[in-house]
Design a protein that fits this description.
The chain is α+β, with helices and mostly antiparallel strands. It has five helices and eight strands. Strands 7-2-3-4-5-8 form a six-stranded antiparallel β-sheet, with helices on one face. The protein has a two-stranded antiparallel ribbon with strand order 1-6. The radius of gyration is 16 Å and the shape is globular.
């Protein structure tokens, strides 16, 4: 069996036992955290209603991508390598494949930021839906995307050497520029 086949065997479908009760009362714009207990890493999505989240690389082969991206960042090599890319998509929470032991919950308390209006969050969701981005653990990961949708700032509190709620300015500016360009092309 190849490495990808081994990874696919590790993944399991979400069962209701893995989903916290808070998810059943989620509201539009709530942050949904996919906490993998043994790795200490979380993947993030934003609840968009009807049991769905918009997300950037949550589930499926994301742990493989995350591990690869993390190693790429920590061990720089002179050999090129391909960029890890994934699309922003909307998917039912119950259909997202995650590693065994992952817990899914609403978590709006991990970031001490003020949420944007529902209209603004919705506009961000529609702007980025189906767009492909390079996944980068340190500079643009699922938490950066989810916090940008909810708060208007790309933040990741799970990067060890970053201050809590420290805004990643380059990612925030890039996402703002994409929104601005999209608005200009629509008018």
């Amino acid at each position: 069996m190849d490495l990808m086949g081994q990874w696919n065997n590790i993944f399991s479908q979400i069962t209701h036992k893995q989903v916290d009760k808070s998810v059943s009362t989620a509201e539009f714009g709530n942050l949904i955290e996919f906490v993998h207990t043994w790795s200490g890493l979380s993947l993030w999505g934003v609840y968009v209603g009807n049991g769905n989240v918009i997300h950037f690389g949550v589930g499926d082969n994301m742990m493989q991508k995350l591990s690869h991206s993390f190693l790429q960042q920590m061990i720089r090599t002179s050999a090129g390598g391909h960029a890890l890319k994934t699309k922003i998509c909307i998917q039912p929470i119950t259909e997202i494949k995650v590693l065994y032991g992952t817990r899914i919950k609403v978590n709006n308390s991990k970031h001490n930021l003020t949420p944007s209006t529902a209209d603004l969050m919705n506009h961000r969701c529609l702007t980025f839906l189906h767009q492909e981005f390079k996944y980068d653990y340190l500079n643009f990961n699922s938490e950066h995307f989810a916090t940008f949708v909810r708060y208007g700032y790309a933040v990741c509190n799970q990067i060890p050497f970053k201050k809590k709620d420290e805004v990643h300015m380059e990612t925030t500016q890039t996402l703002e520029m994409i929104i601005q360009q999209r608005m200009e092309t629509e008018t």
